[in-house]
Amino acid sequence: QLALLQQLFLHGVIATPVASGQQQIVIGSEVADTVAQEGSRRLSGKFLHITDFHPDQFYKTHSSTEEGVACHSGDGPAGYYGAETSDCDTPSSLVNATFDWIAANVADDVDFVIWTGDSARHDSDESIPRSPGQVLGTNRWIADKFAETFGDPKDPTKMAVPVIPTFGNNDILPHNILLPGPNKWLGYYAEIWKRFIPEEQRHSFEFGGWFYTEVIPKKLAVFSLNTLYFFDRNAGVDDCQQPSEPGFKQMEWLRVQLEFLRERGMKAILMGHVPPARTDSKKNWDETCWQKYNLWMQQYRDVVVGSLYGHMNIDHFIVHDTKEIDINILGGFAVDDDVGREAFEDELEIQSAQDYLTELREGWAKLPAVNVKALEEEDTVESDAKGKKDKKKKKKKPGKDLGGKYAERYHLSLVGPSIVPNYFPTLRIVEYNISGLEDAAVWTDSFTDAVPALSLPSDDDPVHEELKREIDAAKKKKKGNKGKKGKKPTKPKDPNLVIPQPPPAGTGPGPAYAPQPLTFLGYTQYFANLTYLNNDMTHESKDASGNKWRDGIHKDKDPKSKKPKPRPFAFEVEYSTFTDKIYKLSDLTVRSYVKLANRIAKENAKKGKGKALTEDFEDDDEDEEEESLDEKKEGKKGKKGKKGGKKKKKKHNKVWLHFLKHAFIKTVPQKKLKKF
């Protein structure tokens, strides 16, 4: 451990001073055992993932959803609980109703909460520009709601359930841009989240906005990553390659902490706001950060249980391929910023989301096929072959292209949909394996009020003006460096790059790959049907617009009553991976998702190789529609010798359609999805 700590101090990752009178606690040191007492909480094997509240204190019921107005004024269809499928933000009524429902249905049945950021409104109304006081004020309000909902009923100063927060690109000002720490924004959030950040990690958070919580002492830690230092749209930082950059320091901190966990026999869940989404044309993260993250995930695949993100509002998953690790980039060679990948738009609308999901699918079409039956038989076949002197040509192992029987070539990012009703408000309860952990010590709050209270900045705060000047200077610096491709370094390898050790010899696959304690078993997704709950519209609505600003499915319509008459609020099950007959996910391991990606990507089920594989796909293209040739030809009806509409059957991959339906939380009609 001494060598690991020396590396962190070398790069300044944990070199922040300790306030006088406080005890210094080494990051990674073991927390004291928690002795389970009678009547205390026990592990349930469930946790809540919730993201992107975007509360808007200026939202007005029955206001206009038009661009520039953003549900702040005028007359229109904005509902009591929100304007579903529009780009308006979240009214306080939806925030309050969501926490009330969680308190009644979730709070007593989860072990921890993962809250992946964006708890401030968008800057969508020029007449009411965002201010630091507003951004931090709504974040404090949401933090207080979490503290109230998951607090200890016997002691209001303590938490009963750990909440792990992170901030999003809209939780700072200007949005997307966070300068290296320590800075005022990190100081403000250290105070706002003082109930959630372990005392021994507050200095780490104030230094860079990252920390972790041992949600099951000595068993499982959740890492809150500051993805704004990886975010390609953050003009205040550069990359994860230069030791002076906060992205580099965060990656070093993560590497050292994961090594500590490996030594202690612990596992980790990673979480953040902006996911490491990357396709042939688009990316969310700086390439050097993505490359390093990909390498870390490969080398610590025995430690990391899973990764969860928000930001993109659509329900989906990402399969990352470790064969895309480029040692030339990691080794310090120049990176061409114009390799063809542009940064994603700030907000994914239906059209851009469609393009993104289609690109994901095209990438999944290149994945090796997962033949579970053959993979399970592989060990038996090898065992039977031992001792035989048969020199026949060996058959290719079915798991070779996957990185072995458990698809260890790949890793996953699970991206959760949002509370803000760009579609329908959504949250997710994930279940994980607690076999053998039923009597494990549970997390207990050791909170002490060590962080001094900070007053929120006023809208004309001189510190805010100073930050704006620093950001402008950082933008100019980054713009000046953007086109420089540079020369290869004289040394073939970056002396600052430390490649982590892989899993120790003899270590079996980790919880992300094979069922065992802490493996994600499945999740149940809940949504709030605001069209029904708002109780404003009397007839079916048009499709949601795919334009840059979305007015929503009820645009140009008037509520049936001038006075809101909402129905009692409740979330309902959208789907559950435990019972979904199309996804057929036996668990949330990487191999299960690679197989699902195989099925989503297939244009024709019969293209699978081998009988067993064909059986896996045989029901995936049953969704058919009759298509008129005349309709297809659009107006070319009058051809000689052809009368009437000759019909032919068109097949659709129902797994792909099912995936799209849930990506947009059932707000896009099936007919429109079939055109994707």
Automatic annotation (TrEMBL):
Entry keyword set: Glycoprotein, Hydrolase, Membrane, Signal, Signal-anchor, Transmembrane, Transmembrane helix, Vacuole
Region (Disordered): 378-402, 472-513, 540-567, 604-655
Basic residues compositional bias, start-end: 388-398, 475-490, 635-655
CDD domains reported in the protein's UniProt record: MPP_ASMase
Biased composition (Acidic residues): 615-629
Family from the record: Belongs to the endopolyphosphatase PPN1 family.
Name this polypeptide is given: Endopolyphosphatase
Source species: Colletotrichum godetiae
Source taxonomy: Eukaryota, Fungi, Dikarya, Ascomycota, Pezizomycotina
